[in-house]
């Protein structure tokens, strides 16, 4: 059976630490609840964590987390994911995680470069992400045009692009986006981190006209508002603004989903409606870490949408997966699978 959902992003191995994380935040001047691309000054952190602490190695990369979350809900063989990796053990770990969770890895393999890694510093209920893209940023549009991947794109009915991919892969993102719009398929896009709408505003603005669904959290929405000169930075106003922006495929309204952690999720549909959906609270001692929670929420929403569920049910499935994720170490969901739809 051809995959229904085609996702594209930066495949990364998460190197996650809790003990010693606060000291690393201070040493490398990182913020507790943020995501950045590693600069030269951050490069030593990966070796320092590996050799002096006891990290967990987990399959990560926001788009890949979302693909695996969607696969948790969808029938087996429904999800294919692409991005660039090296020819190394990190890539092997990612393939194994995807295979276990029913996602087909359609990677572009870049020889002579290592698979990307993300240092995840867990402090309390916050997570700070510091990413070295490595092979991930060497993805080329030629991979999408290869016979094998082109067929998977043709066969898919829904697409998902993570905002992190726009730091290097706009041409590839637009290739997928234009196909989706012209074939009247569905494209979901995630803002992913505040620095994406802040520093990659032009790339975001080029992609949003093709997006049928846009995800973000309150920090990302606020960063979008600031970079676009929007004075009212409330989740409702920003959701409405993005939902009503011009759309290439004007036959269907854009859906914008803004999550706010334990606070209500805001959903705007075109110019028609803005609705708030409460989040069922979790006991504080049930929360292990929040890494990947937003990815899981997006994955649940997209999966339910692929299955034709109404919007309130899509939100509910997203909330369920987000809650399940924060009760695990890193971007994982509990197995054996729990029925969520």
TrEMBL record:
Q: Which domain of life is it from?
A: Eukaryota
UniProt-recorded name of the protein: Adenosine kinase
Domain (Carbohydrate kinase PfkB): residue spans on this chain: 31-337
Keywords on record: ATP-binding, Kinase, Magnesium, Nucleotide-binding, Purine salvage, Transferase
Q: Membrane-spanning regions, if any?
A: none
The record lists the organism as Wallemia mellicola
Q: What GO MF annotations does this protein's record show? A: adenosine kinase activity; ATP binding
One biological process GO term for this chain? Answer: purine ribonucleoside salvage
Which reaction equations make up its catalytic activity? adenosine + ATP = AMP + ADP + H(+)
Q: What class of enzyme is it?
A: transferase
A Gene Ontology CC term for this entry? cytosol
């Amino acid at each position: 059976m051809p995959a229904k959902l085609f996702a594209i992003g930066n495949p990364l191995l998460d190197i996650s630490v809790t003990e010693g994380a606060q000291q690393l935040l201070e040493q490398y001047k990182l913020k507790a609840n943020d995501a950045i691309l590693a600069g030269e000054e951050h490069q030593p952190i990966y070796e320092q964590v590996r050799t002096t602490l006891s990290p967990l190695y987990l399959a990560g990369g926001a788009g890949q987390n979302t693909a695996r979350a969607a696969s948790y809900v969808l029938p087996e063989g429904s999800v294919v994911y692409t991005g660039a990796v090296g020819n190394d053990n990190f890539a092997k770990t990612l393939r194994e995680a995807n295979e276990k969770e029913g996602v087909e890895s359609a990677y572009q393999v870049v020889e002579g470069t290592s698979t990307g890694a993300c240092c995840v510093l867990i402090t309390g209920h916050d997570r700070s992400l510091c990413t070295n893209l490595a092979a991930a940023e060497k993805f080329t549009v030629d991979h999408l045009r290869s016979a094998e991947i082109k067929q998977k794109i043709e066969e898919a009915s829904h697409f998902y692009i993570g905002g992190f991919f726009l730091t290097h892969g706009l041409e590839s993102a637009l290739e997928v986006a234009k196909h989706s719009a012209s074939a009247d398929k569905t494209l979901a896009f995630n803002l992913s981190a505040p620095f994406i709408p802040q520093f990659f505003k032009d790339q975001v603005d080029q992609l949003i006209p093709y997006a049928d669904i846009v995800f973000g959290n309150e920090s990302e929405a606020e960063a979008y508002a600031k970079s676009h000169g929007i004075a009212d930075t409330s989740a409702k106003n920003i959701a409405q603004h993005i939902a009503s922006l011009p759309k290439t495929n004007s036959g269907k309204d854009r859906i914008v989903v803004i999550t706010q952690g334990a606070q209500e999720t805001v959903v705007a549909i075109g110019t028609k409606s803005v609705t708030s959906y409460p989040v069922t609270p979790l006991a504080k001692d049930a929360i292990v870490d929040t890494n990947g929670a937003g990815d899981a929420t997006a994955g649940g929403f997209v999966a339910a949408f692929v299955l034709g569920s109404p919007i309130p049910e899509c939100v509910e499935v997203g909330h369920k997966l987000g809650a399940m994720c924060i009760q695990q170490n890193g971007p994982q969901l509990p197995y054996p699978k729990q029925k969520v739809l």
